[in-house]
Amino acid sequence: MTNPNPNPNPLTALQVMQDAPVIPVIVLSDVAQAVPLARALLAGGIRMLEVTLRTPQALACIEAIARAVPEAVVGAGTVRCRADAQAAANAGARFAVSPGYTSAVGQACRDVDLALLPGVATGGEIMTACEDGFTELKFFPALQAGGLAMLKAWSGPFFDVQFCPTGGISLQNAPEFLALPNVVCVGGSWLVPADAAASGDWHRVTRLATEVQALRHSL
What CATH number does residue 32 fall under? Predict the structure, then answer.
């Protein structure tokens, strides 16, 4: 598998976060669903697509989207090691999202020009990521790790860090997170319901993506 778009202009994590209020967290087991799903999200205004490396088909789905839907920006989620980062880049991913952070993952993503949103859940993890030059971070699992109260507490000592809370975020509670000054966007799986993908209800996915755009305007 080779990168269908070799040496693209590297993105920054902040560019990934600022593109829309929500980054969809996508789990795909059927490569045939990848391209129509990406087009449905794009039609609703969502370009940054996180396809998680949780299934054997994930890399093939990333490659299919990168080739067929160049207007979208596909990334890889659940990046946990150097091999994940390299495979994601080879498949055409432009950014990576990790469930936690290690310096090895950070360097691996730099080596292949993948913008990285490292996952953090503690102050120590934030400090480690910041020492390595990462100040745009994924707060995961957001609700289980303290939610709104934790983000408010972190705004003091980590005043220069910006977050994308992921894990337990929904259309209903997303506005509360997006209203915080240290939150740029949120990550959510509700944009891509498994039953909608299974039935090919792409209009529903587009409608959900369109609803998300109103979150930023309502703040």
Answer: 3.20.20.70
